[in-house]
Amino acid sequence: MPRGREAEAIAFYADVLGLDPVEKPAPLRSRGGVWFEGGALRVHLGIEEPFAPARKAHPAFQVANLDAMIARLDRAGLSWRRDIDLPGLRRIYVDDPFGNRIELLEPHAE
Questions:
Q1: Against a cut of 0.90, is the pTM above it?
Q2: Is the keyword Protease assigned to this protein (predicted)?
């Protein structure tokens, strides 16, 4: 993520995706960035200079209800795009505030 945009990261990852921001360990705080947790998931956003968004490589987050997540994205005014569903998976992509691609997927019975 770019330096100084932690509030935008929290607005997206916490307020929209539902992850909890957690305090970084004291020795790492001066580096900037922000960390999140949700169940067994841990996401660490570090500062990269110069910053270039990850457009191809991406994390995939499993959600319990993809339709509910799409509704949250819509309410937040965020655009998302469908991709080809894979066997047993429905999925979409959304970009975080910095242009990093995020995949959201939900397992389903075929």
A1: yes
A2: no
Q: Would you say residue 1 lies in a domain?
A: no
39: its two tokens: 């169940």
Q: How many helices (H) and strands (E) does the chain have?
A: 2, 7
Q: Is 64 helix (H, G, I), strand (E, B) or coil?
A: coil
Residues 19-69 have pLDDT tens digits of 999 999 999 999 999 999 998 999 999 999 999 999 999 999 999 999 999
75, 66 in Cβ contact below 8 A? no
End-to-end CA distance of the chain: 37
- At 78, list the tokens: 């965020």
Here the CATH number for the domain that contains residue 55 is 3.10.180.10
